[in-house]
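ESCALATION

Customer reports they have been waiting on this structure for their group meeting. Please prioritize. Original submission:
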Amino acid sequence: MSTLPVYRWRLAPDGYATRRQLRARGLRPGGQDVAAQLERPRRRGRSPLIAYLYRVDLAKPVRPMTPGRWAALDKANTARRTCPECRRDAGYVIPALLGICVPCHDTI
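Update from on-call: job pushed to the front of the queue and completed.
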């Protein structure tokens, strides 16, 4: 069993990137295992924040959105905006705390 190399915050060598950094470059981990980890110390005895690093040279390009995926995403976003009470498009994502649009909530 091997251990991962651990680097301090902002001191990781070139060639490693987090998921967000890969995504910003148009890449994805592509099934590779975590190559290293980054630790950011915190105060008052709390455990450090950890970010996993992946090798950039093994990363693959992000898969393109297909028409089916675009349609599914549009349908999901429409469902998040539709009020279950009045069945209208609220024009915004309905807060999960309310469960219904603001005008319907105000009439209760």
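Sent to customer with the following note: The chain has a mean pLDDT of 93.
Escalation resolved.
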